[in-house]
Amino acid sequence: GGEPPPAAPPGYYDTSCFKRGDLLEVPRTLFIHFGIYLGENRVAHLMPDILPAFTGDRRQIQQVVTNKRLILGVITKTASVRVDTVEDFAYGGSILVNHMDRLFEDQVLGSEEAARRAEKLVGATAYSLLWNNCEHFVTYCRYGAPVSFQTDKFCETLKMIIRDQRSVLASVLVGLASIVCLGLAPSTTLPTIFIPFFLWMAG
Asked: Is 134 assigned a catalytic role?
């Protein structure tokens, strides 16, 4: 219930306050990007990337991922766990350190264990927005369980939207059915046959 750790100012990263195995979190406009600090200004993080599907040349793959490479990686479900500098990882954003620890409490693994897990996973990997993204990677490394709260929130929002759309559709259908069955005059009672249908559509 305490205050979250302060974020580093955008564009400035004092790596002396980071410890090996720390979970770094960079809030973006639409999502949060995550990585594991390995020490010596190095961060392991999972990024969608089409390039590992075509080449094993580490020098090419290690170049900064362009938006085109990233989008094609999402589409083709390919990615890599890569090691970048803190600056390249954060890309100008503010960094939160171990902000998720409060959600896992007793599940936090040792810092060295978290770093070693991240290092073992470096290289090409499958990508899934819902099942294997950068948050799954860091939660596995630091807490031993691959989970994504962003994904859970996205799915809940999607369910609400779908439920609302179904409710609107159900209301329209019930309204049309009332007009057809009862005439053009509005009625306050629905035919019994439409009530189960309405309840089903409304979820």
From this structure: yes
